[in-house]
Design brief:
Length: 171
């Protein structure tokens, strides 16, 4: 349990630093900026209570908002994703696996199931984030384009990080 807590604390810090110091300085095609910090919420263990996931997601969003000066946009998107996470997992994962201590990575869930989980969560996160940023429906389609492009590049980074950092269980 202590190992699980320490891993998630380190992951929290690394993803915040990576987001603020590296990814925020990458701007592809003048409006694509990947938000890898959402990976923290995606990878939190299933057995963590729902309220604790929402609180940690709030603090993740708060740290990003403070460091990016975005006034609550990342908090709103992160807390919403944390709120719907158990419902999405309930559809994608068998009840027996939800009660067990499994890691939410593509080696244990399977690549297709993990990718579907990540696509749904990242798309919802980015939709909330970008529509709050624009805060008007006159730019609906351009914002939707930004959502799709940013989601694609964020998912690309998530998949790459899974291939790099998740140990192969067959070894």
């Amino acid at each position: 349990m202590i190992n699980l807590v320490s891993i998630n604390i380190v992951r929290f810090g690394i993803l915040i630093l990576l987001q603020v110091l590296v990814l925020n300085n990458i701007e592809l095609f003048q409006f694509v900026n990947p938000y890898l910090y959402v990976l923290f919420i995606l990878l939190l263990p299933v057995q963590i209570p729902h309220w604790l996931i929402m609180v940690t997601s709030f603090f993740m969003g708060l740290c990003i908002d403070i460091l990016m000066n975005t006034i609550g946009m990342h908090i709103a998107a992160s807390v919403l994703v944390a709120y719907i996470r158990p419902y999405i997992l309930g559809v994608l994962i068998d009840r027996g696996k939800q009660d067990a201590e499994i890691s939410l990575n593509f080696r244990q869930l399977g690549f297709e199931r993990f990718l579907l989980y990540a696509v749904i969560m990242v798309f919802i996160h980015h939709t909330v984030l970008f529509y709050i940023e624009v805060f008007r429906m006159t730019e609906f389609f351009s914002t939707l384009g930004r959502v799709f492009l940013n989601s694609f590049f964020t998912l690309l980074l998530i998949v790459m990080s899974q291939f790099i950092f998740v140990k192969n269980t067959k070894d």
